[in-house]
């Protein structure tokens, strides 16, 4: 099937879904966007990507839907909905063809393991790890600060052989690259999810508790010490589970963060707008997996307790 014949669905058109979906539209693809609260605004004004590194991108009109049942059956689904989303399996099943390729663009650990039982066996499930700095500025408005790389790793589905899996990943990479989205292919997703969590676990939670962006966090000795200690706990748990985390990764991540524009991670924006935070995907699963191998993570556990308190306080007032 040629690129022009493929139908692509974006499940969850927030910052991640809006950005990658707009890039794919700009690359000449047939893209269909599922939205909820922002449906009317996007239908009327489209999607705008204000980027610090690329020219401004405005997509209008947008093929937008409020109900997955109204979407055409899609060949590829990019799932930008957060791990806190309800009925995600049913939505994906309604929007995708029986053999759809589902790319899960979420933070956390074991996301694919949790989603797999909710999908038809005939669908392919692919882990997608996004390395991008962006956030929603308003309905249909996305601020892109840097990067945009996606790592792809086959998780499960009817493609049994490595050759079949690699062929599907190459098809996905070609699709993304048509939208000028850099892509890497992985032998799997577990190691990459653990490595990404080394950065995500400290910076997401600390940005909320300390109400600060990355530049202030890496520039202050106290917060830098706490980030380091949390990173060390994630690495210890990963290695206890047999995951290979290279030496020097903490220094590498600090250097990368120091040259980034000042960035407030996704959890900060959930807290700011009083939405449920992805506490279980980023912290709860990590603590469970650590306990299974006798690994104590006191800094991570303390961070989760603080975030639970903050979330309970604002959700109880809604």
Overall geometry: globular
For the largest beta-sheet, the strand count, sense and barrel status come to: 10 strands, mixed
Mean pLDDT: 96
% residues in beta strands: 15-25%
Please write the string of helix (H) and strand (E) elements: EHEHEEEEHEHEEHEHHHHHHH
- Kindly state the percentage of residues in helix: 40-55%
Instruction: Write the CATH homologous superfamily of the largest domain.
Output: NAD(P)-binding Rossmann-like Domain
CATH architecture of the largest domain: 3-Layer(aba) Sandwich
- Unreliable stretches (pLDDT < 50, length at least 5) are none
Structural class: alpha/beta
The CATH topology assignment of the largest domain is Rossmann fold
In the residues, how many domains can be counted? 2
Q: State the end-to-end distance.
A: 48 Å
- How many beta-strand runs? 10
Per DSSP, the total helix count is 12
Query: From the alpha-carbon coordinates, what is the Rg to the nearest angstrom?
Result: 19 Å
Name of the top-level CATH class of the largest domain? Alpha Beta
Keywords: NADP, Oxidoreductase, Pantothenate biosynthesis
Domain Ketopantoate reductase N-terminal: 8-156
Enzyme class: oxidoreductase
Function: Catalyzes the NADPH-dependent reduction of ketopantoate into pantoic acid.
